[in-house]
Design goal:
The protein is of the alpha/beta class. It is 33% helix and 17% strand. A hairpin with an 8-residue loop joins strand 1 and strand 2. The longest helix is centred in the N-terminal third of the chain and has 19 residues. The structure holds ligand MGD (2 copies), iron/sulfur cluster and molybdenum atom.
């Protein structure tokens, strides 16, 4: 028996027999153990509101309870995000909790290579002894973790503090690297802080909305519903190589050549400057670096942009005119921008357009990155991965001292360098330097770029721990130890949505078997590692929330004015910032109304650079460019959750498919629904041909939900954000 854990379990969990029934005593206990235990304020048969656990829209859902257990849900009508709407994933959110492949007990790989159920005591003992052995032999840099944007930020912070300040690891990245790293880097450099400026009301107030590399009809359906409520008869411009559902619904679609965005955006900037269509007073008062930018873009003329994008010059000019003539122009971008080899500069080229035309800080405007996962923004601010808690900087001594004081630890416990990005972690595994990897709420063996390489790299590890709701994800299958986690609906905590709104999730279902909330898995590990004292005040998520409030003090994301979870609930979510002592004037707040940015000079900075060619262009051997992304609104990423709902399965294709232009199909003698072979330099997969005009000639599209897609992708990265460039690689077809 592993004494520290046994003692802890005895003390903290005496009321629980692991497989025991859901008892009244448990309902009334403080804390959150993934035991279907309602907050005290809730009646067992009440209805309560919580935030959806899929995308970053952050819709409010009414959860209907019977005997303290969620039995059904409906979309919340008075929640300021969704106003009574929800997409299929939201409506089906409870179903994946019942799946038979939930991880219900810790599983440990035995000597014959099979996974065997073990007690939590054995699981934690194994975790601690193996990790400590590796650490002793190979040093602090021999263990890394990969966290997530899909668990409450109190849990992310616990993981970040436990691993980095407690266990003394240095390298822990998050799956937001795959998703938001570009926006983070772009905002930080341009605005001085990772600060998406908008509120969803802007969707309804703009008179022109420009979507770049974003397909909200599929990926953020309720945001799109908000666009549909816009009464200004707005111009809706979609810039996307594919004729997506969003492009079809727009007033203008620019089917540009993939990765030609930067040239287009610089040419637009040049046109606005040449025609005097810029807000000089705003530029003068609130920005820096414009003169250099002006010189830089001078060479990007219409002809050049037309050649690069495949769009006629007069249409580009018309777009510049639209930006000039409309009073409230908002720019929105997502993965078509973030997942590219020159992503950060592309995002900043969008930011530059908003700045130079004064389209920021006013209703209906903004340079607005849409986030992906339910708590991507929480991960960005509080996961202690890519920055120090509360948007602080690991490299800044003052910041380290501030956080050490709040955490009541010696400042030397805080790493003095930034984490390696996940691709660099993989390189270090290949180099034999990193020996153990801990994956929490992410399924990298499916979702990371160039999957075969990931899988090969995992084999080199001495110890892989996967902490997940399900025991059979592609990553779990490659692990030595699986820690069974409670999921959304089975625990408490907060998410931050795309418009910076903090919302609460609640514990409305008992987690199956011995699955525990991640929060309490971290508590067990802390105890087992000998760090019980360090975390004595981290008793339950709301206690952690109070600690994190302090970490935000004085930062642009200051939330010291939020009292507690009840306060968040009463207000219908609260957008950051809300410093102590400030009154919440409105539940639709945007940043930069005063033109003051978070840089030392309080000015936004123009960043720019010459476009570079993509790393793997097409050639005569691999003549097609493969695009990847979301396929439909019923599938979520690697499918671990959405595949568990019969309804969602019915709403999505069941077989691998690849979209191909009918003219290309004709040339290659491919018929609709034929199984064809798709080959890249990394591998070969089979998919059914889906003939459609939505893709241009020479381009193909595969949804990322399919396990095979990332067997084809080519690993290349934006140099500043180190976000993978998922959205283009060269392939060929064989019928
Ligand atoms: N149903 C569903 N919804 C989701 C998710 C899900 O898995 N399923 N995931 C969530 C997450 S984490 C995220 S990050 C978001 C992603 O949301 P989106 O980014 O909107 O979705 P994607 O399909 O990945 O990519 C958007 C578009 O980028 C285009 N694109 C590709 N290359 C280029 C290019 O070079 N230039 C331009 N301008 N466009 C290009 C693609 O054709 C695609 O239509 O969705 C969130 N919502
Ligand atoms: N080709 C291609 N690949 C892509 C993309 C693309 O556009 N094209 N998009 C990328 C993007 S934007 C993203 S965000 C990534 C997403 O990639 P992943 O994060 O790897 O995908 P998910 O399927 O969401 O994995 C989340 C895992 O967490 C588990 N989980 C859910 N809730 C909990 C919880 O509360 N606790 C614990 N411990 N586990 C939980 C789920 O069961 C699941 O296994 O994929 C990236 N991959
Ligand atoms: S739009 Fe996003 S947050 Fe809203 S119900 Fe659908 S998945 Fe959930
Ligand atoms: Mo994402």
């Amino acid at each position: 028996m592993f004494q520290p854990v046994v003692d802890y379990l005895k003390k903290e969990m005496t009321l629980r027999s692991w497989n025991g029934p859901f008892t009244k005593e448990l309902v009334q206990r403080p804390g959150d153990f993934g035991l279907g235990q309602l907050p005290d304020r809730l009646k067992p048969d009440a209805t309560t509101t919580m935030i959806c656990g899929f995308c970053a829209t952050g819709c409010g859902l009414n959860i209907h309870l019977k005997n303290g257990q969620a039995i059904n849900l409906t979309a919340t009508t008075d929640y300021p995000v969704n106003l009574g709407m929800a997409c299929p994933k939201g409506w089906e959110a409870l179903t994946p909790l019942n799946a038979p492949d939930r991880a219900t007990k810790p599983l440990l790989r035995n000597a014959s290579g099979e996974m065997e159920a073990v007690s939590w005591e054995v699981a934690i003992q194994t975790f601690v002894t193996r990790m400590k052995e590796i650490q002793k032999k190979h040093g602090n840099e021999s263990i890394a973790f990969m966290s997530t944007g899909q668990i409450p930020f109190e849990e992310m912070a616990f993981l970040g503090v436990l691993s980095k300040f407690g266990m003394q690891l240095i390298d822990g990245d998050a799956n937001t690297r795959q998703c938001m790293a570009t926006s983070v880097t772009a905002y930080k450099q341009s605005f001085g802080f990772d600060a998406p400026p908008y509120t969803y009301q802007d969707f309804e107030e703009s008179d022109a909305l420009i979507f770049i590399g974003a397909n909200p009809c599929i990926a953020h359906p309720i945001m799109w519903q908000r666009v549909c409520r816009n009464k200004n008869n707005p111009e809706i411009v979609v810039i996307d190589p594919r004729k997506t559902e969003t492009a079809v619904s727009a007033t203008e679609h620019f089917a540009i050549q993939p990765k030609s965005d930067l040239v287009l955006l610089y040419a637009l900037a040049n046109l606005l400057i040449q025609n005097g269509w810029i807000k000089e007073d705003y530029i003068e008062a609130h920005t820096t670096g414009f003169e250099g930018f002006k010189t830089h873009v001078a060479k990007f003329n219409l002809e050049m942009a037309s050649k690069a994008t495949g769009i006629a010059p007069d249409r580009i000019l018309h777009l510049a005119k639209t930006i000039h003539e409309k009073k409230k122009v908002s720019f929105w971008w997502t993965m078509g921008v973030n997942q590219s080899h020159e992503a950060t500069r592309t995002a900043q080229a969008i930011i530059n357009l908003a700045l130079m035309t004064g389209n920021i800080g006013r209703p209906g405007t903004g340079a607005n990155s849409i986030t992906g996962q339910c708590n991507a923004m929480g991960s960005r601010l509080f996961s202690n991965t890519t920055n120090l808690l509360g948007g602080h900087d690991f490299l800044n001594a003052d910041h380290r001292h501030k956080i050490a004081k709040i955490m009541n630890i010696h400042v030397d416990r805080i790493p003095q360098r930034n984490t390696l990005a996940f691709d660099q972690i993989l390189d270090q595994i290949d180099a034999g330097k990193i020996k153990a990897l801990w994956l929490i709420a992410t399924n990298s063996a499916h979702s990371w770029i160039n999957q075969k390489r990931v899988v090969e790299t995992f084999k080199k590890l001495d110890f892989v721990v996967v902490q997940d709701m399900y025991h059979n994800t592609e990553s779990a299958q490659r692990s030595h130890l699986i820690l069974p986690a409670a999921g959304w609906g089975e625990k408490e905590g907060c998410f931050i949505n795309s418009e910076r709104r903090i919302g609460v999730i609640k514990n409305v279902r008992k987690a199956p078997g011995e699955a525990l909330a991640d929060f309490h898995i971290f508590r067990l590990i802390a105890q087992g590692w000998g760090l019980g004292e360090m975390f004595k005040s981290w008793t339950h998520p709301e206690a952690a929330f109070q600690i994190l409030k302090q970490a935000s003090a004085g930062q642009p994301c200051d939330i010291t004015g939020i009292e507690d979870y009840d306060h968040i609930d009463r207000e219908g979510g609260i957008q950051w910032p809300l410093p102590h002592g400030t009154k919440l004037e409105s539940n639709q707040r945007r940043l930069f109304a005063d033109g003051k940015y978070f840089t030392p000079e309080q000015r936004a900075i123009f960043h720019y650079e010459n476009p570079r060619p993509m790393e793997e262009p097409t050639d005569s051997t691999y003549p097609f460019l493969l695009l990847t992304g979301r396929g439909n609104s019923s599938q979520w990423h690697t499918g671990s959750r959405t595949e568990k709902s019969a309804v969602l399965r019915k709403l999505s294709p069941r077989e691998s498919y690849i979209e191909i232009n009918p003219m290309d199909a004709l040339e290659f003698e491919i018929k609709d629904q034929d199984w064809i072979s798709v080959q890249s330099r990394r591998g070969e997969v089979k998919a059914r041909a889906f003939l459609t005009q939505t893709v241009q000639r020479g381009q193909l599209f595969m949804p990322m939900h399919d396990i095979t897609t990332n067997q084809l992708t080519h690993q290349s990265f934006d140099p500043y954000s180190r976000q993978p460039s998922y959205k283009c690689c060269a392939v060929r077809l064989k019928s």
